[in-house]
Amino acid sequence: MHKVAIVGRPNVGKSSLFNRLIGRREAVVADLPGVTRDAKEGLMLHQNHRITLIDTGGLWSGDEWEDAIRQKAEWAMEGAQAVIFVLDPREGLSAADYEVTDWLRRLGKPVIIAANKMDSPKHEVYMAELWGLGFGEPVAISAEHARGLDDLLDRVMEHLPEDTEDVPEIAPIRISLIGRPNVGKSSLLNAITQTDRAIVADMPGTTRDSLDVEWDYGGQRFVLVDTAGIRKKPDTAVEDYAIQRSQAAIGRSDLIWLVVNAGDLGDHELKLANLAYDSGKPVIVIVNKWDLVPDSDLKATEKELNQKLHHISYAPRVYTSAINEYGIHEMLAEAMKLHEKWQSRIPTSELNRWLGVWQMRQSVPNFHGKKLKMYFMTQVETAPPTFAIFCNRADFVTRAYEGFLQNRIREDLQLAGIPVRLKWNEKGPYKRGKNAENDD
Q1: What pLDDT is stored for residue 66 in this prediction?
Q2: Is the N or C terminus of the chain more exposed, i.e. has fewer CB atoms within 10 Å?
Q3: Residue 34 marked in a binding site
């Protein structure tokens, strides 16, 4: 696979161009500098080429993130076969633009200048001074209006060999790391990949956008998504949009790692657990910073976890420390196991044998002398496993009895740790023409 990096000073439209080229809004875009900090990857296809496109943070930003952003951009340059240098000619060349130019010359990579915000041909008069940077003819584009992108890609293609790489047959497992700010999501991602892919700092809100990282473990491909920390009340519009991007990342994921701080549990964990619960995806609770909990507090901390996360008590837990890499392999191994279970399909004959056993094991609800009768059970969906039960009266199903059945399905059908959905369908003389449905 080929690799192309997008670089430039802050607020010239790098993320807008990235979103245009990959064909979806993956990167957070806002009308202020410094929104992108980490190096964000996206896959694009063009003329039989599979290209990993990398959006980098604004270089020479002059703020506290400048060194960290440049380190991530230098990582993006490793193996890059071409670099798109984004400039805003309408503002003129700045000192930061010249700093980026000198840095690119030292790296010695092929550079294509993308003169952004050229919304119409009349704006191209501003491009004259770009020739003096020594990277050849600039390409006039407008990321906002999708102008000039074909010309830009034609220039990029000149530096890429023909793509003969086969598409991997094994589909990746996509995992989102969610949690409130500063619980150690980015540190865990770095510990797993043995890199410094994500910027880590001792302050909340460092991660501003979801960051996708491909990783291979035991022959299984993963896409690990480091999401922005989800606050109760976002402080800025950028944070609010970053949270929306995190929620969208959860929707596209196969599995969720809910990261909590072992020594600092609050009511916000309940909200995040609800978010994970409602997604219908398998959830693994990652109890991070476990090494910082004193031995005398271990039982009390576990009890507090049980109380706050009781409604996802089915979710397995992994106790970790990003600092000493404790529990890292268990995170990935548990994810592989749950992903396989999530796609399980149980034969109808086996389900109905167990349905008879469960009715004998626990008395069915009884209302005014009338019992709930369950006639038949079948699996109607996978990912998550969803079961339809045909009964006489769906309104007779109590929450407690439904919970009993869900627990039995997990225990007796080897689906431990998996969210289970039940759909109730009425059949017989009491059928009222509607279904009762509950999700777990």
Answers
A1: 77
A2: N
A3: no
> Would you say 173 is a known binding-site residue?
no
Q: CATH number of the domain at 2-158, please?
A: 3.40.50.300
Classify residue 191 by its DSSP letter: H
CA distances from 195 to 59, 97, 186, 189, 190 (A): 21, 28, 11, 8, 5
Annotated binding-site residue? 84: no
Q: What is the pLDDT of residues 365-393, one digit of tens each?
A: 999 889 999 999 999 999 889 999 999 99
Q: Judge whether 440 is annotated as a binding position.
A: no
| Inter-helix orientation angle 348-361/399-412, to 10° | 130
What's the pLDDT score for residue 170? 58
Q: Which of 180-184, 287-291, 427-431 has the lowest mean pLDDT?
A: 427-431
Which CATH number is associated with domain 173-343? 3.40.50.300
Binding residue per annotation — 299?
no
The segment(s) of the chain belonging to CATH 3.40.50.300 are 2-158, 173-343
**Is 56 within any annotated ligand binding site?**
yes
- Assess whether pLDDT exceeds 90 at residue 87: yes
Helical spans, DSSP H, in 93-175 = 95-107, 149-157
- 378 a known binding residue? no
Find which of 22-36, 199-213, 232-246 is predicted with most confidence, using mean pLDDT. 232-246
Crossing angle of helices 328-342 and 185-193, in 10° steps, is 90
Q: Is 181 annotated as a binding residue?
A: yes
Sorting pLDDT into bands at 50, 70 and 90, what band is 410?
A: very high
CATH 3.30.300.20 residue ranges in the chain?
348-426
Correct CATH for 348-426 of 3.30.470.20, 3.30.300.20, 3.40.390.10, 2.120.10.70: 3.30.300.20
12 annotated to a ligand binding site: yes
Q: At residue 331, does pLDDT exceed 70?
A: yes
Residue holding tokens 């991070």? 288
Q: Would you say 119 is a known binding-site residue?
A: yes
Q: Quick check: 377 and 414 in contact, CB under 8 A?
A: no
